[in-house]
Amino acid sequence: ATCEHGCKYGECTGPNKCKCFPGFTGKTCNQDLNECGLKPRPCEHRCMNTHGSYKCYCLNGYMLMPDGTCASSRTCTMVNCQYGCEEVKGEVQCLCPSGGLQLGPNGRTCIDIDECSSGRALCSYNRRCINTFGSYYCKCQLGYELKYVSGHYDCVDVNECVTNTHRCNLHAECLNTEGSFKCKCKQGYRGTEFDCA
């Protein structure tokens, strides 16, 4: 079976038919499935969608149970957690609904971990890291675009000379470079690359 546009988060099961891995959707399985919007809702109280998955958390005063339900807890009410809590060996601890969040200094609210600046993010050389609340994603570097090439998605150089997105002077010729472009004044013209006279 061949899938012309590939299956980003899934496998090719027939001519241009993708079977998506859990948590993903779309014709080429390139979209994250928002489980929080499904009926019936996967979480009893609150739901946070994550890349390829989701996390449940409870309202203040409730404790997250192993099966994802929320149980009333007097101890939780006293601690006043932002995203519910769990009891470990008789001690109440506040929870954060994502691995990209950490408990703040007060031990009750969750603050974002900037994976991009902390070096925890894993992006390939031609992609840049974009931090989000509770997570991050990798985006193509400027001058590159996401394309499906030889069986997988990759960031490919944009040829600004062909796409006409260069800013070269009318009397200059455009030369494509990796991730950018250069302008060179045509014969008989002089000046800077954007201003040939």
Low-confidence stretches: none
Shape summary: elongated
Radius of gyration over all CA atoms, rounded: 25 Å
**Terminal residue distance:** 57 Å
Strand content: 35-45%
Number of helices: 3
Structural class: mainly beta
Q: How many domains, in number, for the residues?
A: 3
Mean pLDDT: 85
How many β strands by DSSP? 20
Q: Give a quick account of the main beta sheet: strands, pairing sense, barrel closure.
A: 2 strands, antiparallel
Strands of the biggest beta sheet: in what spatial order? 1-2
Would you list the SSEs in sequence order as H and E?
A: EEEEEEEEHEEEEHEEEEHEEEE
The share of residues in helices is under 10%
Structure characterization notes:
By secondary structure, the chain is mainly beta. The protein has three domains: 36-112, no CATH class; 118-157; 159-196, Ribbon (Laminin), CATH 2.10.25. The chain has helices spanning 74-79, 115-118, 160-163; strands spanning 10-14, 17-20, 24-25, 31-32, 46-50, 53-57, 62-64, 70-72, 85-88, 91-94, 101-103, 110-112, 127-132, 135-140, 144-149, 152-157, 172-177, 180-185, 191-192, 195-196. The protein is elongated and about 85 Å long. It starts with 9 loop residues before the first strand and ends with a strand. One of its GO terms (biological process) is cell adhesion.
